[in-house]
Specification:
Keywords: Repeat. The chain contains 33 helices and six strands. Helix 2 runs parallel beside helix 4. The protein starts with a helix and ends in a 6-residue tail after the last strand.
Amino acid sequence: STNLQLKKLFSKYVDRTSIHSWNSVISELARSGDSEEALKAFSSLRKSALKPNRASFPCTIKSCAAIADLTSGKQAHQQSFVFGYASDLFVSSALIDMYSKCGRLCDARNVFDEIPLRNVVSWTSIINGYARNNCPVEALLLFKRQLIEEGEAVVVSDYHRIDGIAMVPVLTACSCASDKNVTRSIHGFLIQRGLMADVVIGNSLIEAYARNGDVGISMEVFDEMSDRDVISWNSIIAVCAQNGFSLEAIAIFRSMLQSLEVEFNALTLSAVLLACAHSGSLQMGKTLHAQAMKMRLGSDVFVGTSIIDMYCKCGRVTNARKAFDAMEIRNVKSWSAMIAGYGMHGSAKEALGLLADMILDGIKPNAITFVSILSACCHAGLVDEGWHWFCTMQHRFDVEPSVEHYGCMVDLFGRAGQLNRAYDLVSKMGPEPDCVIWSSLLAAARMHKNVEIGELSARKLFELDRNNSGYYTLMSNIYADARRWDDAKRMRAHMKRDGVSKSPGFSLVETKGGRVHVFVAGDRNHPQIEKIYGYLEELSARLREEGYVARVDSVVHDVDEEEKGIVVRVHSEKLAVVFGVMNSAPGTTVQVLKNLRTCEDCHVTMKLISKVTQREIVVRDPKRFHHFRQGDCSCGDYW
């Protein structure tokens, strides 16, 4: 060993003349994660007069797998063959695992096929290899073969019986296959075999159902688990946070605290912070930040990055920058999160300045960093800067543009009114244009009232995804802007004919104490709804005194102007803001999160409400943040 102290201990306590002593050293080094030293010990053994035995090879091969050392793995394979141990079940299983982790599935399969009598470890190794290398169908077919062999066996011993450990890679394959029916079948098999009490099985099943889009069943599996560990709690919280169930994730975290079953850790905090970011739960986010500091996790790069992301998405970019500056260690994700935060708040100059600092600090920006930069340029209308970094990322940083990068550029050109340039870029791009590309072009056509580009984009989108209501709505709006009412009606008729329902708009607002209230357009279900509408009428009168006139261009119905004004007056963000003003102290910031892009009338209304109430109003839509202060918006009316 290169470690002097270890050398002394080795010389003092290890019998160099005993193969058992050598095997113990190799095994201990491998178990402690010191794989390179384990391989050096095996090399020293081979240089001695001793011959390796059956126990010398598994841990040596596992060490090769741990550091993906294919050359050493092949040498160990050859020597196991020379000494007659290649067909040993434990040696062959280790070889299968090693070749799989080195990406050599063909070699792994050859070893497996040459095993005369396979046991559950052999099957588990090869199935895990295919699942790990993103070959879920092959992994599941192998599991089917394993079941057939088990069924044909006269006596099934413990060495051959499928157990919980063997089922984990099968569930991993289910996660990758994204086939709900297969996952449900495997779930039934687990119940039949009585394996559901295994906490590892429960955790894997939660992940499998979530990857298949069955978050509800993931939650049922979690609820039915008789035994849960911190991984169980972290898994279900992360699953909910990542799949649009942010409030449920926060509620589960609170249940975790109350249950006293396990102590939460850094991964728990990161998952709950993500839920706070998505739901705009600033108060809970601040509490978690304080808890992270108390647990001395402020230096943890993953928790620190999650804190940055939470503050940015909760409208507190200044707090995010303070958290960023306080981090002792930053990786590319930390820098990218802060750059993205500046971008979504319209602070493009700060985002570009931070990119320069990142490069000076020796951190190489990656594809995600450049998506954030291009997005920042898009929000600020910085066409030249955006094009510069789009070219620079390819020539200087070897980042090939993906669909996301092209989408940002199409959005940037489109918002700036350069629709022909945007369309030319789409025509020449390397990756196949997807819905994101064409919807960006369609949105630009809507913004600049270009019917021709709009129709071209819509045709492509309907070919790719006929069930997205947003495309019909945008095209209907384009026709309405052109006063082509028959075409606008035709779009709505197509929606009805194809069974496409419009995604309902909703807005969230958080009150003191961390409670989140949800509003929809024309809401009548909130307990304070009568007071809300009363105060909205009062505010509307004050806004008219300030010169407010309803912007009704976004209403596509061919009805009179007065009726259109009534429609826009009850949009969900207006109700949420009014409720927020009513239920917070004078001078405090009102923050609203909404799922759809804010319309022009709501944008004008928010500016005026901020002026007459002397409040800062922060509205986050799917694209960016709007900070309304004293009758102005941070976006400069460019959104």
